Amino acid sequence: MKVLFATGNPGKLREVQAIFAPLGFDIEQLVDEYPEIQADTLEEVVSEGLKWLWERHKIPIIIDDSGLFIEALAGFPGVYSAYVFKTLGCKGILKQMEDLDNRRAEFRCCAGYVDANGHIILKTGNSQGIIIHEKRGSGGFGYDPIFMPDEFSQTFAELDMESKNQISHRGRAFEELASTLKE
Ligand code: IMP
To answer: For residue 155, how many other CB atoms are within 10 A of its CB?
Structure first.
């Protein structure tokens, strides 16, 4: 079954294609920038994005919204993760955390699917870990070089994509979505 993934992020596209391929889903990129509303939760952003895309296309589409929630910064950058990454980057986060001992952080992802009739399914996933003190690794994208998942001694940027998908927020959210769709 072919499903379109509306994203401009090639890193996300690769990860999601790898999750869905063994289940017989062929994920293709839909290049259509939907409005990301300013909201308190990832679920609201995804739900509104899917409604907007469905009005325009009326075909099965998936999207995701994700963010990095840092405990010592009261959840910052959270739902502002994309803007903060564009403006401050990993360097800016490391600077903010320079003197902080509490390095706990969590990635969260909401994966959403709308079918041709406008019916929406949302699934969430998260991944716990710490923010290390300097960037490490060249794989992945975004905040991957500064996030080390629990029980690993490598950052997301040092893991291969398959290993990242097994424990990542996106991997977990899309695995659930894929198995629901498979039913
Ligand atoms: P969005 O889901 O595209 O809004 O992403 C929010 C921000 O978090 C962007 O700057 C992404 O690069 C970053 N981000 C989302 N998922 C990941 C990930 O798996 N690893 C690292 N950064 C991520």
So the answer is: 24
Please give the Cα distance from 84 to 68 (Å, whole number): 10
Among protein residues, the one whose CA lies closest to atom 20 of ligand 1: 144
Give 93-104 pLDDT, tens digit per residue.
Answer: 999 999 999 999
Question: pLDDT category, 33, cuts 50, 70, 90?
Answer: confident
Rounded CA-CA distance 128/149 in Å is 6
**Atom 15 in ligand 1: residue holding the nearest Cα:** 66
User: Cα of 2 to ligand 1 centre, how many Å?
Assistant: 24
Domains of the chain, earliest start first? 2-182 (3.90.950.10)
Q: How far apart are CA 77 and CA 126, in angstroms?
A: 15
9 has a pLDDT exceeding 90: yes
Q: How far apart are the first and last CA of the chain?
A: 13
